[in-house]
Fold:
Amino acid sequence: MAKVIFVQDIAYEYFGVMYISSYIQSKGHSCDVLIEALEPQLFEKLAEAKPDLIGFSTLTGSFKWSINMARKIKENMDVPIIFGGVHVYTNPQKTIEFDAVDMICTGEGEIAMGRLCDSLDAGQIDTSIEGLWFKEKDGSIKRTDKAKLIDPLDELPFPDRQMYWKYPSIESRTTFPLMGSRGCPYTCSYCFIPTAKEIFKGQGNFVRQRSAENILAEVAQCLEWSPVKTQVQFVEDHFGNNRTRTRKILRGISALKNGTLKWAGAIRIERFMKEEYVADLANTNHGLLGLAVECGNEEYRNTVMKRETKNEDIILAADLARKYGIKYLTLNMIGLPGETYEMALETLELNLRIKPYYANCFVYQPYPNTELQQYAVEHKFFTESVSEELGVSFYDRYDEDNKDLQKRINLQRVFSLIVSFPWMKKPLLKLVDWNARFALEALFGVYYLYYLNKYINLTWKQVYQVLRVWSKNKFSTQNTPANVSVTEGKAQFYPSKTESAV
Structure:
């Protein structure tokens, strides 16, 4: 039996890790996860576990942390380390060149990791496994062909949530995430999906959906494991596209837990504009529905972001939701390449028109190898190096030399407040003009935490943890990357505790 330990920074259930864990366990191996934020004795626990393989399923914003943690592990343990995740398979060569990385997964990892564990159990790593790259002792790279995309998804065992729910702070959350499909049929330029489609061309169906029966069985299992759960949060890329399947799933969810279980998720505008469909969804236990506005300037949204959604359609979708009593939030971005302050105000005005329960406004993150990031570099809106400095938060990206960007991000800080309280628009926009950084940060932080507590059902203990981390760095006198990023306003609302990878 091979033993795999995943290590990560933030306290969140990663689906890649959970699916790999359940799959390799079905093949007779063992798997666990250690989260730095919840493990004060992480290195001691790693040493005690004596793993055969240590894994990092890393996001772009966590990549530097992952590399630094892998280096620290290498200083104390002689254990092979594998990296995987979207950031890795869209940047495979750069990833495997790091000294602490022994191998990488270049796609979906369940089957490849199962075969890797089999070879570890046999005492010799098989470097011919499809879907993996290996670093040889001489530093050369052994590349294999990409693995086929897994289809049908129903054949996979349910994700191993208990590896995360061993932590009380995660298990106690009343909302749990669920992924009912993989892939996406759309080609939004700010997303990794167009790049992924090219990477996996010829490897099978890119868009795959689990059956309604399979999803409902997993939900029932989750409720059995954690009765505290009251809401399912769909986090897949195109939730709600298949209306017939969606109806079946949401009706089934609404019948569980004595008819009290709720659902939440984000639905494409163009799939939500059918009144009969909205009326039907209104008869299920809906929580907070996400509607993507992204940008209020229709031409920019359609041509640059490749969303192809009209403002009138967004207004229609919002009006239908209100007509049938479905609470909804909007998803917006500010800081887009080529966007002006006036365009950012268009996004604000559109949100004021459609009156969401909460207007979630993110700062655009130029993730590497996405079309919009390449567009931005080609048009000299920023340099490619900006993408290497991203953190885990979706709410920050400062450039102190770019006053226009700074003003737009100042607007982001009060965007949600203005939409919720339009009478505050004039004084809050004055704070934006005055660059009142401290006041803007305070207003954003307080109202965002209010949103998390009210709509995401975060406990006040969890809210306190966010405040504690931020305050510790905000008022620290130490010259560390985390507190410098907060005090100078350059990086993350959820700051990293580690130094940047070199």
